[in-house]
Write the structure tokens for this entry.
Amino acid sequence: MISNERKEYLKRIKRNKRIILISQISIIVLFLGIWELLSRLNMIDTFLLSSPTKVFNTIIDLAKSNNLFNHLFTTLKEILISFILGNIIGFTISSILYLFKTLSKILDPYLTILNSLPKVALGPLIIIVSGANTKSIIIMALLISSIISILNINTAFKSTDENRIKLLKTMNASKLQILFHVVIPSNYSQIVDSFKVNISMCFVGVIMGEFLVSKEGVGYLINYGSQVFNMNLVISGIFILIILTIGLYLLISFLERKIKK
Amino acid sequence: MNNILEIKNLYKNYQTIDEEVKVLDNINIKVNKGDFLGIVGPSGAGKSTLLSIISGLEKPSSGYIVKDDDITFAYMLQTDTLMPYLTILDNCLLGLKINKKYSKEKELEVIKLLTKYGLKDYINKYPSDLSGGQKQRASLIRALCLSPDILLLDEPFSALDYQNRLNISNDIKDILKKENKSMIIVTHDLSEAISLCSKVIVLSNKPSKIKSIYRIDLDQDKDPINNRMSDEFMKYYKMIWRDLNDK
């Protein structure tokens, strides 16, 4: 039997959640509404700032001509490859650095410098070495994502509860056993968090790469739009990116829930 | 009595960039089979370091730990250190798996042990489902699963509230007696050391020397809670307390 106080409490939580959701949706609806209204009343220059209906029509046109899916597929493929490779590289190097403390100390300043360096500055170099192709885009994304991944996972590994490690040492565990039985499982949630950061970093890297070299992809679409002064295309590209981000974020959150179970 | 471990002329120094810190200074201890040995002393006296050296986690600066090769240890630490991502059963099997001694038969033995000491309903639960006292009992069983000859306990109850401390110290003494194990416990709680142990060693301030060794002649068949009520207990308490505070 649920008490009235509990019913009231559950109702309050439900109401609160509903208010938050409605407010979140209202903000975007309001934003799009005002934007559309201002463009129809000619209060903003639609040549520069477009309008929601124009953006919508551009996306539909792209979809009809099959271009949208080609660009989407290209970008998604590049993100996915760099995400998987970035995580493998980040995870493997973090594990090696955990196992070899001296190596970790030797490489520490180099990792910090690489992390601070604006990777876009390396763009021309990457293009000259690897050519103006998908490989350069992925290298660019990997440079951005894997360094952060290494730093994040390594920091998490280092903060593993010393008592748990000590306990395993008393059981005569080897360094590798400590890594697999304590360090990695103790940091599941930090590793998943690093995946989350990594997906955004891959996004940044891939779009940056597409700006520089690509003939396909959402980044190329935005860049091409700006070159021919087609702002509908530029803003449509940005909208597609937002939708992609939301989709990938939801996917990672779903995986996170699965892993944390 | 059957001597199973001897610490001989043991010294330990820690090196830092600025200085050399002397921690243990000529420690000599004998442990007999079935001994419950308590080590008390001021904070920072090197009690935990001594346990680490006995177990082989740290090397002494000089001196020896004399024991037969087949004498084994298991550790129980201050915090429960049960892995939150493993079930209680998997936590207890961890040491066996690490030492490649896991088998189905061993698993059944572990389940028997958990059942015998009241954790049957928690075998497939996670540590977060257990109370503080139950967690410590599970930690103890995990240590016992390795069939150690000597159990090393480093302030094992300090994270528990007072009532739980008394109950679990009762439990632990009872379990160790039934399993016929020896124990070395490091604690800052004098009452705990007197009520649990057959011998109490008092360490001085750093660098720690052995100030005195007390043989505790309380009724060892009584549980630690009842032992605390006896006049004898108070007599030991006053004596050791004076010794501890004597500069």
Observations:
- Chain B has a mean pLDDT of 87.
- The longest strand of chain B covers residues 3-15.
- DSSP finds eight helices and nine strands in chain B.
- The beta strands of chain B are 3-15, 20-32, 36-40, 62-67, 73-76, 150-154, 182-186, 199-203, 210-215.
